[in-house]
Structure formats: structure tokens, C-alpha cells
């Protein structure tokens, strides 16, 4: 606009100076005006066109931007949907993790972690309200029998049924959880007196009094129960649970299928057991064991024909420690394998020395526990000891009990057959005291059965005992087995057994367990 004004003023001035004629000035002014209009129009055209082009470009950019925004929005929507799906999966997984963390997948019961949290809360409430609560620790005694006979699916079915029965008994009076494979625990809230606790314990034990029907079979399953009471037996969850478990172990040691309350004497017993275990490890390292031998007599010839090797622990401070005191601990701790290796090695070594002094046929037998018999290197240890000392395998015997043989009959038969094929004697100890099947007994590759002393001790004045002893001897002979009668203490018993055609005798009448040197002296008199 400023340029136009300057153009008009300046052009008028120049034209007036150049053309003095008014007509010519007017004509030129008209031409000048049109020229201005034309030039102005052209300039405005290009200016507007430039602006329109700029607007067109801006509109295209805006359109492209809008399309990109719409595309991004669509992608965001898809991402949001995917995130929603992932969130649902995450929430589901978190719920599953929580369930696995706090619930048993098989029975649906709370697990040990859940039980611990609930117990801690229950203790706090009981403390504030000055109430009592009880921890009832339950272990299923013979679930392995179901697993080994019918398989783990059947065993799992039993566990589910037990869980349901426990829940139905306790209802809203407590809290039930499965702690481990065959262990359950119950919190009984605010019981007023011992009679109420006794009522629930007997309800729990009654669960196991009835037979369990599984796959057309009926099983009797028993349970051992340990009980600890807050606040008498502990003020925190860990202590209460530990003390209930101690009570449970005491119930199992007393023969299972019973319940036992915790008492502080259990701690003393556990301390003594711990010290005994520590001493037992030292005994192995320091060679504190010694083998004694109880002679076995041929009742027909009245000559010594063998001996049973019996381990003795001579403690440097406590003196003689009986096998019943340390063998169970050795089995629990796994030390029985090392002790068993030592017994086999030492008995074979002693046998070699005894055979040099006794020209007649003679054998030594050793007792083998279930834990020792089940170890993978048991057979190798026996064969290595026999071969390394170059004794005749027929001069060495393995004694197992019916309970050991019947844990896994097929496996037992396989191992015993392998040993017998190499000439080793197989003896069945404590015959008549177990519950084994005669069908399995006739399959076992046994050479000799040892009739338990319980059938011998009252035989001289009890006709029934005599008949039972004679029946066992006759049965053994029918199966082509030799018989050793254990626990013979007087001549009358020995004479009766001779009339029953018993092959061999063992007992205090012939000699107590004695060191190897005394056995050699005794052999000279037979």
C-alpha cells in the first residue's frame, strides 16, 4: 500500500514535469492508472496464488499428520487390547502362583507356608485373649504299603480322602494343612479344657479305624499323632511345630498308631540321641566296635558248626553300649552302611583265622538290616570281602528277617538269588514272628530258618508252644530248609528239639556271645 502511494505521487510529479500539455497529461495519467491496476492485480494474483499454494501444502501435511495419528491411534488400541490380555494372563498367573505358594495341589488343603502364617496369627490372637490352642501333627504310618502295592495314583487317592475326612472333623473349630507327603497338621482353636482336645484327637484317630476301599481292595491305614499346646509347649509358631513333631516322633518310636503329648523330657532324649550319634561317628573313625560270636551247634552230632557274628560297641567312657541303643540311630543317619561294611569285612577276616584253628566245616553269619540290605553297594561289599580274603562263599551267611524280606519281595528274591548262586548261605532270622506270606517264603532262596526264641522259652511246660515249635520245624523241612532254634537255655529244651528233628541249636546253653578267642577255646570242647 505504501509502495502504491509512493508510485502515484512520484509518477504524477514526473509526468507533470515532462508533459506540460493538460490533455497529454490526462491521457498519460489514465494509462498510468490502468498500468497501476494491472500491475497491482498481477502482484495480488501471484501473492494470493502463493498463499493458496502454501495453504495447500499445509493442508496436505495436516492430512498426512492426521492419517499418521489415526494409524498410531489404531496401533495404540491394538497394543491396549494386547496389554489387557497380558494383564489378564498375569493376574491369572499371579493367582496360580499364590495358590501354589499357599495351597497343596493334590488335596487342595493349605500347605506348610500357609499353615505357618495362620499359626502365627492364631498365636497372637490366643495371647491377646488369654486362650489355649493345640497343634496336632499327624503322620500316616503305612501309606507306602498302598503306594508299593497299588501304585502312587491309589496313594494319592487315599491322601485326598484323608484330607476330606480331617476337614469334616475339625470344621470351623480349627485349621487343617498338608505339610509334606504323608504329614498333616491341625490347629485347634481355643479349646476350653483337655477333655475337648481329647474328644477331637479321638475323632481323628477314629478316621483310621475303618478300612479304606481302594480299587476293590481294603486297607487298614494307621496314623501316629503328636500334640503340642500353646502356651505351655511354646510361645511361637516354630517352637510349637517343632515340639509337636518331637511328640510325633515319640509316638512312632512307641510302635505307631498312637498319639503322644509333648513333654520336656523329649528334649533331653533328643539331646542324648544327638550325643550318641556324634559318638557313633567317632566310634567308626576310632574303631571302637568289636565282634562277638555266639556258637551254633549241630544237635545231631553235638559239634560246633557255625557262629552268628554280633556287633558290640565298647565306648571309652560309657563302656558297653547295647546294639538296640545305637543300631536304630545308625539306620536313621545312614551310618549303618559303614558299620555294615566293617562287620562284613571283620567277620570274613575272623572266619579265615577261625578256619585255620577248626578243621571241621564251619560258617559265620551276619545280620543285615533293611537300610543296609537296600543300599546299592551291599552285594559288592559282600563279594569283595569274600574274594579279597579268599574264603569259600559257602562258609559265609547272610541273616535277614521276615520284615526285611517282605518290604520288596521281588527285589529281595533277586538279590538273594544272586548271592546264593555264588554259594553264600541265606538265613531267615526270627522265623514265625512276622506276617509274611508262605507263598513268598517258598520263593525266597533260603538255606536255613532260625526259629525265634519266643517259641522256645516256654516250650518245656507249655504244650501249645511245643506244638508250634514242632510245626515250624516240620514246615521248614517240608520246604527243604534246615532249622536253627534260637534261645536254648537248658538241656530239656535241647532234648525236646532233638526229638522234633531240629537241625541246629543256638543259645546260652551252648554259649553266650563271646570274643573270637573264647570261641576258639569253646570249639576245642565240641
TrEMBL record:
Residues 273-526 form the EAL domain. GO terms for molecular function: cyclic-guanylate-specific phosphodiesterase activity. Residues 131-264 form the GGDEF domain. The keyword Transmembrane helix applies. The chain crosses the membrane at residues 24-48. CDD domains: EAL, GGDEF. Keywords: Coiled coil, Membrane, Transmembrane, Transmembrane helix. SUPFAM superfamilies: EAL domain-like, Nucleotide cyclase. InterPro entries: Cyclic-di-GMP_PDE-like, EAL_dom, EAL_sf, GGDEF_dom, Nucleotide_cyclase, Rev_trsase/Diguanyl_cyclase. Residues 55-93 form a coiled coil. Pfam families: EAL, GGDEF. This is Diguanylate cyclase/phosphodiesterase.
Amino acid at each position: 500500500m505504501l509502495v502504491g502511494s509512493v508510485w502515484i505521487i512520484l509518477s504524477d510529479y514526473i509526468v507533470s514535469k515532462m508533459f506540460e500539455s493538460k490533455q497529454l497529461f490526462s491521457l498519460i495519467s489514465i494509462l498510468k492508472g490502468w498500468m497501476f491496476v494491472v500491475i497491482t492485480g498481477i502482484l495480488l494474483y501471484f501473492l494470493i496464488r502463493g498463499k493458496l499454494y502454501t495453504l495447500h501444502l499445509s493442508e496436505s501435511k495436516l492430512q498426512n499428520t492426521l492419517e499418521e495419528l489415526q494409524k498410531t491411534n489404531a496401533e495404540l488400541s491394538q497394543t491396549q487390547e494386547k496389554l489387557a490380555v497380558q494383564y489378564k494372563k498375569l493376574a491369572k498367573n499371579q493367582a496360580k502362583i499364590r495358590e501354589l505358594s499357599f495351597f497343596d495341589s493334590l488335596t487342595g488343603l493349605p500347605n506348610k507356608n500357609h499353615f505357618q502364617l495362620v499359626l502365627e496369627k492364631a498365636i497372637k490372637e490366643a495371647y491377646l485373649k488369654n486362650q489355649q490352642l493345640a497343634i496336632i501333627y499327624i503322620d500316616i504310618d503305612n501309606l507306602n504299603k498302598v503306594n508299593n502295592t497299588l501304585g502312587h495314583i491309589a496313594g494319592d487317592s487315599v491322601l485326598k480322602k484323608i484330607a476330606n475326612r480331617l476337614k469334616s472333623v475339625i470344621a470351623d473349630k480349627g485349621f487343617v494343612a498338608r505339610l509334606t507327603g504323608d504329614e498333616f497338621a491341625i490347629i485347634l482353636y481355643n479349646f476350653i479344657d483337655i477333655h475337648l482336645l481329647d474328644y477331637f484327637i479321638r475323632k481323628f484317630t477314629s478316621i483310621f479305624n475303618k478300612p479304606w476301599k481302594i480299587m476293590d481292595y481294603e486297607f487298614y491305614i494307621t496314623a501316629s499323632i503328636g500334640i503340642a499346646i500353646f502356651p505351655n509347649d511354646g510361645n511361637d509358631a516354630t517352637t510349637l511345630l517343632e515340639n509337636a513333631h518331637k511328640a510325633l516322633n515319640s509316638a512312632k518310636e512307641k510302635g505307631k498308631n498312637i498319639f503322644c503329648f509333648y513333654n520336656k523330657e523329649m528334649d533331653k532324649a533328643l539331646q542324648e540321641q544327638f550325643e550318641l550319634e556324634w559318638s557313633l561317628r567317632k566310634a567308626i573313625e576310632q574303631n571302637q566296635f568289636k565282634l562277638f560270636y555266639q556258637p551254633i551247634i549241630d544237635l545231631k552230632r553235638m559239634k560246633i558248626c557255625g557262629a552268628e557274628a554280633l556287633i558290640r560297641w565298647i565306648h571309652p567312657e560309657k563302656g558297653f553300649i547295647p546294639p538296640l541303643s545305637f543300631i536304630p540311630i545308625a539306620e536313621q543317619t545312614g551310618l549303618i552302611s559303614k558299620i555294615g561294611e566293617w562287620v562284613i569285612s571283620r567277620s570274613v577276616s575272623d572266619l579265615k583265622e577261625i578256619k585255620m584253628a577248626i578243621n571241621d566245616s564251619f560258617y559265620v553269619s551276619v545280620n543285615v538290616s533293611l537300610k543296609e540290605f537296600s543300599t546299592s553297594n551291599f552285594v559288592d561289599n559282600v563279594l569283595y570281602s569274600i574274594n579279597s580274603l579268599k574264603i569259600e562263599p559257602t562258609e559265609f551267611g547272610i541273616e535277614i528277617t521276615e520284615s526285611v524280606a517282605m518290604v520288596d519281595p521281588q527285589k529281595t528274591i533277586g538279590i538273594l538269588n544272586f548271592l546264593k548262586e555264588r554259594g553264600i548261605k541265606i538265613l531267615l532270622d526270627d522265623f514265625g514272628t512276622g506276617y509274611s506270606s508262605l507263598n513268598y517264603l517258598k520263593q525266597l532262596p533260603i538255606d536255613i530258618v532260625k526259629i525265634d526264641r519266643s517259641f522256645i522259652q516256654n516250650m518245656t511246660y507249655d504244650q501249645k508252644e511245643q506244638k508250634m515249635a514242632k510245626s515250624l520245624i516240620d514246615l521248614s523241612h517240608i520246604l527243604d530248609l534246615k532249622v536253627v532254634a534260637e534261645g536254648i537255655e537248658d538241656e530239656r529244651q535241647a532234648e525236646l528239639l532233638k526229638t522234633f528233628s531240629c537241625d541246629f541249636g543256638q543259645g546260652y546253653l551252648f554259649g553266650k556271645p563271646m570274643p573270637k578267642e573264647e570261641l576258639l577255646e569253646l570249639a576245642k570242647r565240641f
